[in-house]
Design a protein that fits this description.
Strand content: 15-25%
CATH superfamily of the largest domain: Mitochondrial import inner membrane translocase subunit Tim21
Number of domains: 2
Organism: Mytilinidion resinicola
Membrane topology: Single-pass membrane protein
Largest sheet: 7 strands, antiparallel
Helix content: 25-40%
Radius of gyration: 50 Å
Oligomer: single chain
Pfam family, one: TIM21
Order of helices and strands: HHHHHEEEEEEE
CATH topology of the largest domain: Nuclear Transport Factor 2, Chain: A
CATH class of the largest domain: Alpha Beta
Structural class: alpha+beta
Subunit structure: Component of the TIM23 complex.
Keywords: Membrane, Mitochondrion, Mitochondrion inner membrane, Protein transport, Transit peptide, Translocation, Transmembrane, Transmembrane helix, Transport
Length: 230
């Protein structure tokens, strides 16, 4: 007699519920998750460099030691402020140097190189005195006649600014007056110049060019010709 095989009985819902409820459910402790997340945040902060601190392996950039080798993107906020301050200061120094250089060139042109400069009038008056025969007789050889400013005990102090003044009258005529000294092998003299320039004129013309050599006056006219000796 063959044994009858028993069919497996269907699982009942009550049995499943009982088996599930009988086993304890393991849940991760929330404190462990909090520690892990906090540790992860600290590791991320340590891995990423801060924008306020320079990268490792170089010095902190300041206004004094910045040489421009470090790229702008690699600088921190404080280092960017330091570089901006340094570059602004350097730009100001360059602009100040340009302005001062331009002022010096303008002064040299108006006082030395311009045809109406006082130095140009001084040189032309000295040349006229050297060419005049009467002045050569009183002062000496024209090659050794010297002209200079106010006399001084020092030889180097003679290269000072020539005393002069400029004014304009009510008719618009400009008056230039100069005063300097001449010296030759024989004598010394004092030179007084009065020049005028009317509004319709482009250049000054002589009114008086007087050379006083120990009481003797030599006067020149507007064109440099000798017209009287006193």
């Amino acid at each position: 007699m063959t044994a009858l095989h028993r069919l497996p009985q269907p699982l009942r819902l009550e049995n499943l519920r009982g088996s599930c409820l009988s086993r304890p459910v393991r849940r991760p402790a929330p404190r462990v998750l909090f520690v892990r997340s906090f540790t992860a945040q600290r590791s991320l902060k340590a891995a990423s460099p801060s924008s306020n601190t320079p990268s490792s392996g170089r010095k902190h950039i300041t206004v004094v030691n910045d040489d421009g080798r470090v790229r702008w993107g690699a600088l921190s906020k404080t280092e960017k402020v330091a570089r901006t301050t340094q570059q602004t200061f350097n730009l100001g120094i360059v602009l100040l140097g340009v302005v001062m250089t331009g002022a010096v060139f303008a002064l040299l042109y108006t006082e030395v190189f311009s045809l109406d400069s006082k130095t140009a009038h001084f040189n032309r008056a000295t040349d006229q005195i050297r060419r005049d025969k009467r002045c050569v007789e009183l002062l000496g050889d024209s090659k050794h006649i010297k002209a200079y400013g106010e006399p001084s005990w020092s030889r180097w102090a003679r290269n000072r600014i020539i005393a002069s003044s400029t004014e304009k009258d009510r008719w618009g005529t400009e008056h230039l007056r100069m005063h300097f000294y001449v010296e030759g092998p024989k004598n010394q003299g004092v030179v007084n110049i009065h020049m005028t320039k009317r509004p319709s004129q482009n250049e000054y013309e002589y009114k008086v060019l007087a050379v006083d050599v120990k009481g003797e006056w030599t006067l020149f006219g507007g064109f440099g010709h000798l017209f009287g000796v006193y």
